[in-house]
From TrEMBL:
Record protein name field: Uncharacterized protein
Domain of life: Bacteria
Lineage, opening ranks: Bacteria, Bacillati, Actinomycetota, Actinomycetes, Kitasatosporales
Amino acid sequence: MVTGHRPLLCRGCAGNLYAVCTMDHAGGNTVGQWEVDHELPVSCPLSGLLPLTGTAASVHDLPGAEEVLGPPV
């Protein structure tokens, strides 16, 4: 889970999301492999976009993060 940050919310349903990042710190690597999904199973219009996975320095840098992360618009 991402710590030291505000909770991650889904734009589709306002549900809480979890984020897990695994990193290989060898050579000062700052890019991690991420997985983001709902904490609990929910009916959400963005379910087809989750889990959001990929490699990025930050969860907010993941491709598609701007469509999924944040309060509903």
